[in-house]
Amino acid sequence: MGCGSSKALETNDENKNKNIPNQIKEQEKPNEEDLKDNKDQINQNINNNIIKEKISSSNKNFQNDKQNEIEKNNQNKIGQDNQQYQEQINQFNQQMNEQFNQLNNQMKEMSKQFNEAFNQQNNAQFNQQFNQQFDPQQFMNQFSQQFNQQFDPQQFMNQFNPQQSKDFQNFLQEYQKNGQKVNINININKKPQKSDNNKKDEKNNKEDESKNKKDEKNNKKDESNNKKDEKNNKEDESKNKKNEKNNKKDESNNKKDEKNNKKDESNNKKDESNNKKDESNNKNYKKPDDGKNNKKDESNNKNDKKPDDDTIYKAIIAIKSKYPQGKKWNNSNTYEWGRDVAMGLGYSSYSGCGCFAFAMIASDAAFGNAPAYEFTDKNKIRVGDILRINNDTHFVIVLKKNGNTKYTIAEGNYNSSINWGRVIDLKETGFDYGYTRYKK
To answer: Which end of the chain is more exposed for a tag (fewer CB within 10 A), N or C?
Structure first.
């Protein structure tokens, strides 16, 4: 009974267990509407997550691009700032070099001047002149004052950060120590700003450069003018030397003339005494009646006849064979009129040389021993007259009259020779005075 009953229990349990899953399935079976709502909710959540991921990814990409762009712009800006600052440093270097070059040139010029002074004077005079003209302390003070007016280091360094100012200060100290250009390497992170004073200084520097160029041009002009003046001075010196030589020659000639005048005075006195003797002899002398006096009278009668121009011309031309064209004739050739001719001029004799000697010879060939007379009226000039022309420097004898002022002449000492047939115009040559053999 016991075994039978146990089997019965098992079968009942099995039946119970078989019914349990069906009950659970019945209980767990969901509602269709709920399932649909849950599915929409899940899909919506999935879509939201996808959108969030896309937004997040796009935000990251945008931020990365923006960051890269900012970094690139910053690098470009820093590069530009570095370049501008480097240009300003280079400009400052150039200004400093120009200042030192100007100082060096000034010192060289002064040294040159002092060397020239030293060559001309002794050491004591040179030292005295140097101390009077040059004061080193005053010169350095003037240079420092000019430099401080044009450049303010503190103002320049305030444009940069402390590290840059320190580097630049070290550069200035090195620059002032060596007195020459110093290579610099400064890291720049800040763009320098030009102040109004710097702009004014730049304008002033440009104006100074233009003034310096003008001064250089003016200096060159002054040098060329000085050279011209030197040439003119040398020419004047040579002219003065020539004038001195000419003056010495004139003095010697004047002395010779004085000696000749004294000789002439002594000769005149002798002639006067001889004339007095002749007069006394003539008073006591009786003319004999013979044929000689008749011949003299005949010659005097010939002289009393008025000669015509053609006769005078032929008489002068007759000596051309003896005194031909181009024959050498200068002041070494002389001639003298005797008492008969010179008495008309108030002398016992009258001598000449060069051009006057030839005119006297030609005049005697035409007029013989007829007295000579001086005249100044150019309207009374006739053939055979001797004329003084060319500002009282030359004698000629008239061969023909060609008009009121034009004459054909013969002359000696014309280019140091005898010349026949030249035509002159008294309007050009002038007329000082003349000698005629015609009776008054």
So the answer is: N
